[in-house]
Specification:
Blueprint lengths: L3 H7 L1 H16 L24 H12 L7 H7 L2 E4 L4 E3 L5 E4 L17 H9 L4 E6 L2 E5 L6 E5 L4 E4 L5 H14 L6 E5 L17 H5 L5 E4 L2 H10 L2 H11 L32 E3 L3 E6 L2 E7 L9 E5 L4 E3 L22 H16 L4 E3 L6 E2 L1 H26 L8 H4 L4 H4 L11 H13 L14 H11 L3 H13 L3 H14 L4 H16 L4 H16 L12 H5 L3 H11 L10 E7 L4 E8 L2 E6 L8 E4 L2 H8 L5 H6 L4 E4 L2 H8 L47
Parallel strand pairs: 7-8, 8-9, 9-10, 14-15, 17-20
Antiparallel strand pairs: 1-4, 2-3, 4-5, 5-6, 6-7, 11-12, 12-13, 13-14, 15-16, 17-18, 18-19, 20-21
Helix pairs in contact: 10-11, 11-14, 15-17, 16-17, 16-18, 17-18, 18-19
The structure holds zinc ion.
Zinc ion (ZN) binds next to loops.
């Protein structure tokens, strides 16, 4: 009697026979794979139609939607005054800054078999554009950018809330407004509701900076606005920009099989961004101001949708401006492009406070995205739903976490309560319950699921070859992957195909099959960020990452808004520590015009700075006015040139600056995300250029885009 183990160990021939048999099985043709042909009319030559499984998922999802509630459509069109004159707005630089023509297809059909009915509904709602009356004295231009532009009648002119992303679209909106209701009156004040780029980037399109400096036009913003406006996007800016290719689908053509809007709005405009610093900060929790003769009560709501944000109540009009704290969607607690996780409990509480402070009497509620709500009952309904949405996500996710549900499982366990799912504004057109629930766990417990296997895991590329080997090689995985694909079990298919692609980045067939799987998953999503991410990954797997030079959208205004400390911190991030091994120096930096001083040290291959101190025996002292340093920060004048012409003064060893410059690295704005996509596959076309390129000088600060949200 031998055990099975002894048998196998003692009979090599038998083992060989097994192997042969195994091999025979392997070489046999796989179970009849469904041949999916490329879809005619798809923007990509390898693009596929939605499968029968996807159609079924979408059909079932549609049945759960509260389609009988059509109030959003009535509210969206209420108060319409005039349409947008031209569906395209040109940028001053000559390219198209805004294009609504590409979204016309959304209105040409009732349904699309490749778009989730709920997402399509939201995109149709966002497909309205023009000038609207909110109530007499308050007007909005919608559909000219990701966000809305709002005008409130003041005593001497128009108070502007949130001037969009870029100047060109703001100008076009202002022209339309003036043509119909503006009465030729000027802008009398500007309010930035919060720190995200889609709420101030177009200010130069409507305001002359001289009028702000002279005090003629105040700009009002929440406390610490400037500090947080830039800082959120600088340190990890390049990574965030790259991830925007996924979340915002920057490469995807607008198409039933591609980009269908962003939920918050159709897209982000591509003109010129600028930033004029506020002249008046709202410091108190609740603060009343007279703004051009209009009584406004501001409610600061820090660390909610943005690090600094404020709601505004106009008591004489019973009008409540909810900034971006309450919009027609579940918002992001975690943002797929990458951001620090927000505080949903605090967010919920500020909405609750707005409800009890203003919402009990408000008759109109409006915001920086989407459309207003009329009537107190409706306002209270929306505020209560939104309050409970964020609180539930916080509380119930933590409830589950306290029972052992991990960050790797929570999105499959947590569900938004049914009552909230039945409210359109609580559905996920920006945040999704899936990625938000994971975000809540990340906020409180971090990335680790507490299984030691995931404590110091191998990198995917290092572990994948063993999986591939153990699964019996590429052909077997492809065969099983195709079966799972054909059965509509796309998440399982993506698990094993991803392992193969990680192990064999040059395996074109594997990348194509994984792309097919991602594409079906993309079509099935209600949330545009999830849809775009799957479709963007499919795109890059099929075509590689597009190269090509396009306009650089970095804005000198934004870089000027960086504090010197933030700039020095960022240099520490741009420096490749591996190039600085063995280097050591101490430098004093003095900027006389703003009275700041820093000690900057390079030691242990690490660049640090401390504000407010100077070293006693520095290797170098660099004295330069902050105003001049900005020229170097924006890449307009090299530090060498500043020194050469005496703008900057150096004492000590100036060669330090050269050595330091040599350690600075240009981040690749198109770094690889999916394996094997770095080399573009030129035969595959159909992509849209994104606006990221360029090479930075060593001391340039390079947040290339203002990120909208
Ligand atoms: Zn926004």
């Amino acid at each position: 009697m031998t055990t099975r183990r002894e048998f196998l160990a003692s009979v090599p021939a038998a083992l060989a026979a097994f192997a042969v048999a195994d091999r025979l099985v392997l070489d046999a043709p796989p179970a009849r794979a469904q041949q999916i042909d490329p879809l005619r009319g798809h923007f990509h030559p390898k693009g596929k139609a939605p499968s029968s499984h996807t159609l079924e998922v979408l059909r079932k999802a549609k049945q759960t939607l509260p389609l009988s509630d059509t109030r959003d459509f009535e509210e969206q069109k209420r108060g319409f005054i005039a349409p947008m004159k031209s569906l395209k707005i040109m940028a001053d630089a000559g390219h198209v800054a805004w294009d609504m023509e590409r979204f016309q297809f959304l209105d040409e059909q009732e349904e699309f078999d490749s778009i989730h009915a709920s997402l399509l509904r939201q995109s149709k709602l966002n497909n309205n554009y023009g000038l609207y009356e909110v109530v007499p004295g308050i007007y909005q231009v919608r559909g000219f950018d990701l966000s809305d532009l709002t005008f409130v009648r003041g005593k001497t002119g128009w108070i502007v809330f949130d001037p969009l992303v870029t100047g060109e679209v703001v100008r076009a909106a202002w022209d339309l407004f003036q043509e119909h209701v503006g009465e030729g009156l000027p802008v009398s004040a500007v309010i930035y509701s919060h720190t995200h780029g889609d709420h101030w980037g177009g200010v130069r399109g409507i305001v002359d900076e001289a009028d702000v400096r002279s005090g003629k036009i105040p700009i009002i913003a929440p406390a610490d606005f400037m500090e947080f406006t830039v800082s959120e996007n600088v340190y990890a800016g390049n990574a965030m920009n790259r991830r925007l290719f996924y979340q915002y689908g920057l490469l995807l053509p607008a198409s039933p099989h591609g980009y269908v809007g962003q939920g918050l709005g159709q897209a982000v405009s591509a003109g010129a961004t600028g930033l004029i610093a506020p002249t008046k900060y709202v410091e108190k929790d609740i603060e009343e101001l007279d703004v051009d003769g209009v009584r406004m009560i501001f409610q600061n709501t820090p660390n909610t949708e943005a690090p600094r944000e404020m709601n505004t109540y106009i008591p004489d009009l019973k009008a409540l401006w909810m900034a971006e704290n309450v919009i027609a969607s579940l918002h992001n607690i975690y943002t797929l492009r990458g951001a620090q996780v927000r505080d949903p409990l605090r967010w919920s509480k500020y909405i609750g406070e707005a409800l009890y402070r203003f919402g009990v009497e408000a008759e109109i509620m409006f915001a920086s995205h989407h459309w207003p709500r009329w009537g107190n009952e409706r306002i209270q309904e929306v505020l209560r739903g939104q309050r409970d949405l964020y609180a539930n996500m916080n509380n119930q996710v933590l409830h589950l976490a306290n029972q052992g549900v991990t960050i790797s499982e929570i999105h499959n366990v947590y569900q938004v309560p049914k009552g909230l799912q039945a409210k359109w504004d609580c559905r996920g057109y920006h945040g999704s319950p899936q990625h938000n629930s994971r975000g809540v766990i990340q906020r409180y417990l971090g990335f680790w699921d507490c299984n030691p296997t995931s404590l110091i895991p191998l990198s995917p590329a290092d572990s994948a070859p063993l999986y591939v080997e153990m699964m019996g090689g590429a052909e077997k995985i492809m065969s099983r992957g195709r079966e799972l694909h054909d059965e509509g079990r796309y998440l399982l298919a993506s698990e094993i195909l991803n392992k193969l692609v990680q192990a064999e980045p040059d395996n074109e067939a594997a990348k194509d099959l994984l792309a097919d799987v991602f594409e079906q998953l993309g079509y099935q999503q209600e949330n545009p960020g999830l849809r775009n991410s799957f479709l963007a990954a499919a795109y890059e797997l099929r075509s590689g990452i597009p190269e090509g030079e396009t306009a650089d959208s970095s804005s000198p205004d934004v870089i000027r808004a960086m504090s010197t400390e933030l700039f020095l911190n960022f240099l520490g991030i741009r420096m490749d520590s591996r190039k600085a091994e063995g280097m050591r120096f101490t430098m004093n930096l003095i900027t006389p015009d703003n009275g700041e001083k820093f000690v900057v040290e390079l030691d242990n291959a690490t660049l640090t700075n401390i504000k407010g101190f100077l070293a006693e025996k520095p290797d170098l002292t660099l004295t330069i006015n902050r105003a001049d340093l900005e020229q170097t920060m924006i890449g307009a004048k090299a530090l060498d040139a500043q020194i050469a012409d005496g703008t900057a003064n150096v004492e000590g060893d100036p060669s330090i600056l050269k050595k330091l410059a040599a350690t600075m690295v240009d981040f690749d704005p198109r770094f690889e995300i999916m394996p094997g996509t770095k080399t573009r596959r030129p035969e595959m076309t159909g992509y849209v250029e994104s606006g990221i390129s360029g090479t930075a000088s060593p001391y340039e600060a390079v947040p290339r885009q203002t990120i909208a949200e």
